[in-house]
Amino acid sequence: MTPARPSSIDSSPPSDGSPPARTRLLLAALRLFSEQGYAKTSIRAIATAAQANVAAVSYYFGDKAALYSAVFSEPLGDMHSLIPDFTQPGMSLGEALQCYFRGALAPLNQGELMRQCVRLHIREMLEPTGQWEREMEKDVRQPHEALLKLLCRHMDVATVDDDMHRLALTIAGLAFQLWSHREVVEAVRPQLLDTPEAVDVWARRMAAYALAMVTAEQALRAPAAQASLPSSPAARSPRRKRTPQ
Fold it and tell me: Which residues bind DNA (predicted)?
């Protein structure tokens, strides 16, 4: 059931040019949840920080749990929304990978908003509420499956095996590492992330690195290369123990 709209809530932007109430609530919740965690952040504190009516939280989001869920996907978007972009038919693998990385790295242009989102994800892992499992399905598993299918199609791999999963996870990890190590990059070489153009260079480079990984995986999957790979530990003969002299 849709809640009745409180007469005191106005969804239009205020006359002073500040964002509408829903946006202010979302941004205030992101900041407070990332700093204090879910349990220690109250609805009243969020409303006060957003300069909004407490009833606005109920109207726009339903409850605290729904608001918490919204801050994981709305401020920076989500990986699931990228699937239709990088899986379009007719794109070369290089084009598809550039599209994938441009979308995955776009949040890096958001500055402090990006930092708060990273802190929020880290805090959720340390103080789990169950949201992480839901995010895993939408923002990790589904994009992973889409990337996996894309790679298999372009590499003409009929059966998905562990090595294809390794390849897809490693490619996705390029973007994740830059997300999680943003402050390290800024400390070492700040100009690598200080403009949208700089982030776009990362996307093009990562697409090139990913293509190199694909080429390497194709070489490893060749029969001659497979024959030269060391056997698994379970298949190796155990070493004989030396008899004490």
Answer: 42-61
Chunked mean pLDDT (size 10), the chain, 245 residues: 32 58 94 94 96 95 94 72 85 96 87 83 87 78 93 96 97 90 90 94 98 97 71 51 47
Rounded-to-integer distance, Cα 209 and Cα 171, Å: 8
Q: Are 207 and 94 in contact (CB under 8 A)?
A: yes
Q: How many whole angstroms separate alpha carbon 32 and alpha carbon 19? A: 18
Residue 157, CA atoms < 13 Å, CB-side half-sphere: 20
The token pair that represents 233 in the structure block: 């530990």
152: CB partners within 8 A, 6+ apart: 158, 160, 164
* Domains of the chain, each with CATH number or no CATH: 21-72 (1.10.10.60), 76-222 (1.10.357.10)
Give alpha helix (H) positions in the chain. 21-36, 43-50, 54-61, 64-73, 83-86, 93-105, 112-126, 131-135, 142-155, 162-180, 182-188, 196-220, 223-228
Helix (H, G, I), strand (E, B) or coil at 158: coil
Tokens of residue 180, six digits: 């999680």
Contact between residue 82 and residue 103 where contact means Cβ atoms under 8 Å apart: yes
CA–CA dist 191, 197 (Å, integer): 10
- Comparing C-alpha atoms, which of 81, 75, 112, 114 is closest to residue 99? 81
Residue 147 to residue 101: CA distance in whole angstroms: 11
